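User: Predict structure, ligand pyridoxal-5'-phosphate.
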Amino acid sequence: MSLERIRNDLGAVVSADRAHVWHHLSQHKQYETTDPRVFVEGKGLRLWDAAGREYLDAVSGGVWTVNVGYGRTSIADAVRDQLVKLNYFAGAAGNIPAAVFAQKLVGKMPGMSRVYYSNSGSEANEKAYKMVRQIAARHHGGRKWKILYRERDYHGTTLGTLATSGQPERAMQYGPFPDGFVMVPHCLEYRRQWDVENYGTRAADAIEEVILREGPDSVGAIILEPVTAGGGVITPPDGYWPRVQEICRKHDILLILDEVVCGLGRTGAWFGYQQYGIQPDIVTMAKGVASGYAAISCTVTTERVFEMFKDAPEDGLSYFRDISTYGGCTAGPVAALENMRIIEDEGLLENTTRMGERVLANLRALMEKHAVIGDVRGKGLFCGAELVADRATREPLDEKRVQAVVADCAANGVLIGATNRSLPGLNNTLCLSPGLIATADDIDTITNAIDSALTRLEG
Ligand SMILES: Cc1ncc(COP(=O)(O)O)c(C=O)c1O
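Assistant: Predicted complex:
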């Protein structure tokens, strides 16, 4: 059946999907009795499914991706124009959009200078890990090969990145994993692990304790999310980031920041780390880079990191011997350029800051009304509400009940998210990440849906 004909027979589309598509992160037993949700169209923050239902998308395509909203014809046009001119050549050569986007991107990231293209967040992080390993091999005599990662953070779905999953349920049953990755404690103050006043510095000092235990000359890098996303929207406590930076410098440890979710405006700054005044060595990004209009990810480094791959050119093994076939597609950078133009011209960073404050204010007001909300956190349009069975003891609400809130909102036309199957016993945070174009009305619609769902849950 042609795509055009099938578009007119959405029943057939749903049947084809049920029969042949293996959905991500889904238990398919449910589709023996229910239809999978199949989306057909999107405009702004609105989506329509095959049954004709309309939704307000408060999760930017489910996984914090469609930052500039759906239906952007200017991105589609730019991609089309580029594809008919030149769709592809392997990344060993250059192309116009890749060069122009790299220049624009590093222009937003003082101190950073080189962009390595690939096409998913996992891949961007794998590249960073490989850089660290090669630097260890060539510049540290094989030492400094370990990479630290943090409890509750997530860096991807490949075996290498799952080896750095701070979310045990994501990694379960997929091991064994490669060696040399070591976990440090999370910094979520609501689930405090130390009874001290300066929580931020204490949580950062916990990283140094791991470095000292492992031996500083064995540790080459640490990867961290500026604000943890799927691990429960964890904003860093005061004092955390400056101390982390200090520890990295002291022990000559490369700081890799995973901006796959935070990047391109999600927190109200171009990059999440810019909210905290830190200077990374490597930054990875994907998702919002082209808002899902094309597959693109970037591993961005300082010139110092880049220079380490230029030594001994007569030795055929000194350069970064890595390739990503689709890292040579031109659709990604051309979509990314237009995506960046939209964020700039429409003032979306400012809107994100303003609307993010509204989300937090609304959620805090809901806290007064619903004892089930234990904590509210967020930065920009990147917010979470942690649900508890008991506010005094902070006992987490059962995951099934949290998912019931998500389902209730969806049944009422608002798509929200929640931590799911990530942290044993702690999949209890509702996640909100609407497109950066959200209006005050959109925000109120989203939080009103949560209000009603919580009233039904508690009733
Ligand atoms: C913080 C973070 N890093 C990396 C990834 C992996 O990105 P991808 O799914 O594009 O491989 C994700 C995906 O959700 C993420 O949230």
